[in-house]
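The protein record filed below.
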Amino acid sequence: MPKFVFIIKDKDPAILTKDLYHRHISHLKQNARAQKLYLVGPLKGQDKILQVIQAESSEDAQEIVNSDPYIKEGLYQTYECYELLESNEANNWLMDTPRIQEMLRGLK
């Protein structure tokens, strides 16, 4: 299943409450149990969060992120979304994909 990387940013710390924090954690737990949340965490030294969501499409992944209380309540104002082309031993580090083959043809 495709994975989508979100950089969630533009934090308004005045909005954060204990209740909002606990609703955010409940949202994360629910999506982790459903195997939709692959990875999540704050970026050290930044007021940004990284989330990796497993979903059928970018729209489905954005729906999950948009349902996070942190987004719904405006604690974080914006995010960037990118599809991750996961590279690992199981897929030969993407070496056999047309994208990498084309890139290699153009190199010395």
Notes: The mean pLDDT is 97. The two ends are 34 Å apart (CA to CA). The helical segments are 18-33, 58-66, 69-72, 98-105.
